[in-house]
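Chain A, query sequence.
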Amino acid sequence: MSETPKPSKVPGQGIPGLERRFIAASIRLTARFYSKDRITAMFREEAHQAIELAARLSLEDGQRPVAISRFFGVEADSCDWSVFMVLEHLVIANTAITALLPRLFSRRDPCVDFPLEDLKPLPTAGPEQIESLATLRERYTEVVDKLGNLHAGSRCPHPWFGNLSAAQWHALAAFHTSTHRRQIERILKAN
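Chain A, predicted structure.
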């Protein structure tokens, strides 16, 4: 009898290559055909929904890790997080993108090494992540609104999706937030 393989615990290894290529193409198409303001609105709505879902939870329910099945766009090693861990991950990742966008736009040494393991949340993440994500949503919007054409400027490589412009990183922020909002919904359903 053969054993079922366990999900990979190496960051980024839990998303199959074909799926990564599809996501990369989707990011590029979104950045090309959607306006900056439309992508910002998508980001804001997804963050708002994640905040609303988490705000209903007690400390105990929000910190309880829940195993869910991996779905499109989610790494296998993040499928046992709590809701508050998901929020903390969104805060960490989107804070990095918020800092990156102006650097790309202005062509100031934009590429910064940000190891994937630094994007992982702590199991102790708590309800403070709700306010952190709400604050970040506003800060992100302010930064993006101040920038002009996000297609101008330089590019910076994403470890899975290749060289991305500021417009493409912006689309990635919306896609990423949407993916993890769906993760929160699945956690709540499984809980």
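Residues 1-12 have pLDDT under 50 and may be disordered. The longest helix spans residues 166-190.
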